[in-house]
Each structure stands twice: as C-alpha cells, then as structure tokens.
Design a protein that fits this description.
The protein is an alpha+beta fold. Helix content is 48%, strand content 17%. It has five helices and four strands; from the N terminus they run βααββααβα. It has a four-stranded antiparallel beta sheet with strand order 2-3-1-4. The protein is globular, with a radius of gyration of 17 Å. It starts with a strand and ends in an 11-residue tail after the last helix.
Length: 140
C-alpha cells in the first residue's frame, strides 16, 4: 500500500468559520477515513486548507476516495452547522479539485512537512499582518 499526500481547501476559503471549527472538521475527516479503511499517517487541518498523508487500500482509487471524503464531509458539516448553508451557496463545502502526490522514499520528510505546516502558516500570517505598504507607508 503506497502513501499519498493530499491537499484540499474549503470553498471561498472562509477562514473565520473554518478556523473556529477546524478540530471538529478534522474529527469528521478522521471518522470518514476510518469508515473506508483508509489509514492516516499524518494530517493537519490548517486555517484555510487540509494536508493529509494517507494510505488508501489497493482496491480503492484515490480519486474515488477523495470524491467520497469531500462529498460526505460536506454533508456532515452542513448537518452539524445548518447556518453554514447561507455562507456556502451550494451544498459544496470544499473547492473543486485537490492536489495529490504519491509518496515513496521521502515519506518521513512529508510527514515532517505536514506536522510543521500549521506552525509555518501562523508565522506567514504574522509576517503579512506586519507588512507595511510601500506606497502608503501604512500597515496592512
């Protein structure tokens, strides 16, 4: 069974809603993986995207599993937080598409990368908050 590094994001990247519920969304994704027998090696739900390193059973395609994961999790998110339907016009919580890469020998580096992703996002966010506009001299 090979490992796959998958990255996907919520539609419109609504950080306020997503960040407040990122742990609960992570639980939903974990539960769906368990139901399908998909092993999560490493995962991080960041402020506006998700990184998962997972092992999909050979009898299942990665694209079929991702269709299930994104579709079923959208349903569960809308059932849990009914008011989210007004923020997300359709019943699609996630953006179309995703990034996937098959991981071979460098599995430990990918695990470490995912583990540090949230910390790196927070550092990048702090840098952007302290950014000064070169044209106006004001903080952005």
């Amino acid at each position: 069974m090979g490992a796959n590094h998958v990255v996907f994001a919520p539609k419109y990247r609504r950080k306020a809603f997503y960040d407040a519920r990122r742990l609960e969304i992570g639980q939903i994704l974990r539960q769906l993986c368990e139901w399908k027998g998909v092993n999560i090696l490493e995962a991080e739900v960041c402020v506006d995207h998700v990184h998962i390193l997972l092992e999909v059973p050979p009898k299942m395609s990665v694209s079929g599993f991702m269709r299930y994961l994104k579709g079923k999790s959208s349903q569960m998110i809308y059932e849990k937080w009914a008011n989210a339907r007004f923020k997300y016009r359709s019943r699609q919580f996630w953006c179309r598409g995703y990034y996937v890469d098959t991981v071979g020998k460098n599995i430990k580096k990918i695990e470490e990368y995912i583990r540090n992703q949230l910390k790196e996002d927070k550092i990048a966010e702090q840098l952007t908050l302290e950014f000064e506009d070169p044209f106006t001299g004001k903080q952005k």
